[in-house]
Protein backbone atom coordinates (compact mmCIF):
# COMPACT_ATOMS: atom_id res chain seq x y z
CA UNK A 1 0.00 0.00 0.00
CA UNK A 2 2.79 2.43 0.96
CA UNK A 3 4.64 1.66 -2.27
CA UNK A 4 1.48 2.35 -4.30
CA UNK A 5 1.09 5.71 -2.53
CA UNK A 6 4.72 6.62 -3.28
CA UNK A 7 4.25 5.62 -6.94
CA UNK A 8 1.10 7.75 -7.17
CA UNK A 9 2.92 10.62 -5.50
CA UNK A 10 5.79 10.33 -7.99
CA UNK A 11 3.35 10.31 -10.90
CA UNK A 12 1.60 13.35 -9.49
CA UNK A 13 4.96 15.09 -9.06
CA UNK A 14 5.80 14.41 -12.71
CA UNK A 15 2.44 15.72 -13.91
CA UNK A 16 2.60 18.83 -11.75
CA UNK A 17 6.26 19.35 -12.64
CA UNK A 18 5.42 19.13 -16.34
CA UNK A 19 2.47 21.48 -16.01
CA UNK A 20 4.10 24.08 -13.79
CA UNK A 21 7.58 24.14 -15.29
CA UNK A 22 7.00 25.96 -18.52
CA UNK A 23 10.09 28.00 -17.60
CA UNK A 24 12.40 24.94 -17.83
CA UNK A 25 14.53 26.53 -15.10
CA UNK A 26 16.36 23.65 -13.45
CA UNK A 27 16.55 25.26 -9.99
CA UNK A 28 12.81 26.04 -10.06
CA UNK A 29 12.05 22.45 -11.10
CA UNK A 30 14.20 21.04 -8.29
CA UNK A 31 12.56 23.38 -5.78
CA UNK A 32 9.05 22.39 -6.94
CA UNK A 33 10.02 18.75 -6.34
CA UNK A 34 11.38 19.59 -2.88
CA UNK A 35 8.20 21.49 -1.97
CA UNK A 36 6.11 18.46 -2.92
CA UNK A 37 8.27 16.27 -0.67
CA UNK A 38 7.88 18.77 2.18
CA UNK A 39 4.10 18.90 1.65
CA UNK A 40 3.81 15.11 1.77
CA UNK A 41 6.02 14.99 4.89
CA UNK A 42 3.78 17.60 6.52
CA UNK A 43 0.71 15.52 5.68
CA UNK A 44 2.33 12.34 7.02
CA UNK A 45 3.82 13.71 10.23
CA UNK A 46 1.86 16.88 10.98
CA UNK A 47 5.20 18.68 11.00
CA UNK A 48 4.82 22.31 12.00
CA UNK A 49 4.78 25.14 9.47
CA UNK A 50 7.97 26.61 10.95
CA UNK A 51 9.90 23.40 10.22
CA UNK A 52 8.43 23.24 6.72
CA UNK A 53 9.49 26.83 6.07
CA UNK A 54 13.01 26.02 7.31
CA UNK A 55 13.17 23.03 4.97
CA UNK A 56 12.12 25.26 2.06
CA UNK A 57 15.01 27.64 2.80
CA UNK A 58 17.51 24.77 3.13
CA UNK A 59 16.46 23.00 -0.07
CA UNK A 60 16.35 26.25 -2.04
CA UNK A 61 19.84 27.15 -0.84
CA UNK A 62 21.21 23.74 -1.88
CA UNK A 63 19.46 23.86 -5.28
CA UNK A 64 20.88 27.31 -6.07
CA UNK A 65 24.31 26.31 -4.75
CA UNK A 66 24.29 23.20 -6.97
CA UNK A 67 23.64 25.24 -10.12
CA UNK A 68 26.26 27.79 -9.06
CA UNK A 69 28.79 25.04 -8.42
CA UNK A 70 28.13 23.48 -11.82
CA UNK A 71 28.64 26.88 -13.45
CA UNK A 72 31.99 27.37 -11.71
CA UNK A 73 33.23 24.00 -13.01
CA UNK A 74 31.83 24.22 -16.58
CA UNK A 75 32.95 27.81 -17.04
CA UNK A 76 36.30 27.12 -15.37
CA UNK A 77 37.03 24.26 -17.78
CA UNK A 78 36.07 26.36 -20.82
CA UNK A 79 38.16 29.35 -19.73
CA UNK A 80 41.16 27.26 -18.59
CA UNK A 81 41.30 25.75 -22.07
CA UNK A 82 41.02 29.06 -23.97
CA UNK A 83 42.30 31.84 -21.68
CA UNK A 84 45.10 34.03 -22.97
CA UNK A 85 46.03 35.76 -19.71
CA UNK A 86 47.90 33.75 -17.05
CA UNK A 87 45.68 35.08 -14.23
CA UNK A 88 42.39 34.08 -15.87
CA UNK A 89 43.82 30.63 -16.69
CA UNK A 90 45.09 30.17 -13.12
CA UNK A 91 41.83 31.33 -11.55
CA UNK A 92 39.76 29.09 -13.83
CA UNK A 93 41.87 26.06 -12.89
CA UNK A 94 41.40 26.86 -9.19
CA UNK A 95 37.61 27.07 -9.71
CA UNK A 96 37.50 23.65 -11.38
CA UNK A 97 39.52 22.06 -8.58
CA UNK A 98 37.78 23.66 -5.58
CA UNK A 99 34.22 23.55 -6.90
CA UNK A 100 34.46 19.95 -8.14
CA UNK A 101 35.26 18.99 -4.54
CA UNK A 102 32.51 21.19 -3.07
CA UNK A 103 29.97 19.88 -5.63
CA UNK A 104 30.68 16.28 -4.59
CA UNK A 105 30.09 17.19 -0.93
CA UNK A 106 26.91 19.05 -1.86
CA UNK A 107 25.53 16.09 -3.82
CA UNK A 108 26.27 13.67 -0.98
CA UNK A 109 24.60 16.01 1.53
CA UNK A 110 21.50 16.46 -0.66
CA UNK A 111 21.19 12.69 -1.15
CA UNK A 112 21.41 12.18 2.63
CA UNK A 113 18.69 14.79 3.21
CA UNK A 114 16.49 13.57 0.32
CA UNK A 115 16.74 16.97 -1.40
CA UNK A 116 16.42 17.12 -5.18
CA UNK A 117 19.14 19.10 -6.93
CA UNK A 118 19.11 20.50 -10.47
CA UNK A 119 21.11 18.43 -12.95
CA UNK A 120 21.62 21.32 -15.38
CA UNK A 121 22.39 25.02 -15.00
CA UNK A 122 19.64 27.46 -14.06
CA UNK A 123 18.53 29.89 -16.77
CA UNK A 124 20.58 32.70 -15.19
CA UNK A 125 23.70 30.54 -15.03
CA UNK A 126 23.22 29.40 -18.66
CA UNK A 127 23.20 33.09 -19.63
CA UNK A 128 26.48 33.70 -17.76
CA UNK A 129 28.11 30.68 -19.44
CA UNK A 130 26.96 31.91 -22.85
CA UNK A 131 28.02 35.53 -22.23
CA UNK A 132 31.55 34.49 -21.27
CA UNK A 133 32.17 31.70 -23.79
CA UNK A 134 30.86 33.74 -26.74
CA UNK A 135 33.76 36.15 -26.22
CA UNK A 136 37.23 35.44 -27.56
CA UNK A 137 40.79 36.13 -26.42
CA UNK A 138 41.36 38.83 -23.82
CA UNK A 139 37.68 39.87 -23.99
CA UNK A 140 36.65 36.41 -22.76
CA UNK A 141 39.15 36.57 -19.90
CA UNK A 142 37.88 40.01 -18.88
CA UNK A 143 34.21 38.97 -19.07
CA UNK A 144 35.04 35.85 -17.04
CA UNK A 145 36.78 37.80 -14.27
CA UNK A 146 33.93 40.33 -14.18
CA UNK A 147 31.36 37.54 -13.76
CA UNK A 148 33.50 35.72 -11.18
CA UNK A 149 33.84 38.85 -9.06
CA UNK A 150 30.08 39.38 -9.07
CA UNK A 151 29.38 35.68 -8.54
CA UNK A 152 31.71 35.32 -5.56
CA UNK A 153 30.40 38.48 -3.89
CA UNK A 154 26.93 36.90 -4.06
CA UNK A 155 28.20 33.46 -2.99
CA UNK A 156 29.97 34.77 0.11
CA UNK A 157 26.76 36.51 1.18
CA UNK A 158 24.47 33.53 0.43
CA UNK A 159 26.70 30.94 2.10
CA UNK A 160 27.27 33.19 5.13
CA UNK A 161 23.49 33.66 5.43
CA UNK A 162 22.92 29.90 5.14
CA UNK A 163 25.56 29.20 7.80
CA UNK A 164 23.31 31.20 10.17
CA UNK A 165 19.77 30.70 8.84
CA UNK A 166 19.71 27.06 7.67
CA UNK A 167 17.52 24.95 9.93
CA UNK A 168 19.37 21.66 9.29
CA UNK A 169 22.67 21.53 11.24
CA UNK A 170 24.47 19.56 8.49
CA UNK A 171 23.45 22.10 5.83
CA UNK A 172 24.47 24.93 8.17
CA UNK A 173 27.87 23.25 8.69
CA UNK A 174 28.35 22.71 4.93
CA UNK A 175 27.67 26.39 4.24
CA UNK A 176 30.01 27.50 7.04
CA UNK A 177 32.79 25.23 5.72
CA UNK A 178 32.56 26.79 2.24
CA UNK A 179 32.64 30.45 3.37
CA UNK A 180 36.46 30.67 3.87
CA UNK A 181 37.07 29.03 0.47
CA UNK A 182 34.65 31.42 -1.25
CA UNK A 183 36.27 34.39 0.51
CA UNK A 184 39.65 33.17 -0.74
CA UNK A 185 38.23 33.00 -4.30
CA UNK A 186 36.80 36.51 -3.93
CA UNK A 187 40.16 37.79 -2.70
CA UNK A 188 41.94 36.09 -5.63
CA UNK A 189 39.63 37.50 -8.29
CA UNK A 190 39.70 40.97 -6.72
CA UNK A 191 43.51 41.00 -6.93
CA UNK A 192 43.76 39.42 -10.39
CA UNK A 193 40.97 41.31 -12.19
CA UNK A 194 42.85 44.64 -12.65
CA UNK A 195 45.77 42.83 -14.35
CA UNK A 196 43.39 40.97 -16.70
CA UNK A 197 41.43 44.19 -17.37
CA UNK A 198 44.69 45.94 -18.33
CA UNK A 199 45.70 43.19 -20.78
CA UNK A 200 45.58 43.99 -24.50
UniProtKB/TrEMBL annotation:
Keyword annotations of the record: Signal
Signal peptide: 1-21
Pfam assignment, any one: DUF4142
DUF4142 domain location: 58-191
Name of the protein this chain belongs to: Membrane protein
Amino acid sequence: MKRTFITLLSAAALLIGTASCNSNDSVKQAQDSNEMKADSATADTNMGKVEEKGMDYDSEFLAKAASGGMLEVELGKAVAARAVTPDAKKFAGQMVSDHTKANAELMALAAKKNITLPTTLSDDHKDVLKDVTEEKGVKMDQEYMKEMLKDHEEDVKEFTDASIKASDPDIKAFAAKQVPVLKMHLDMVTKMKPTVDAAK
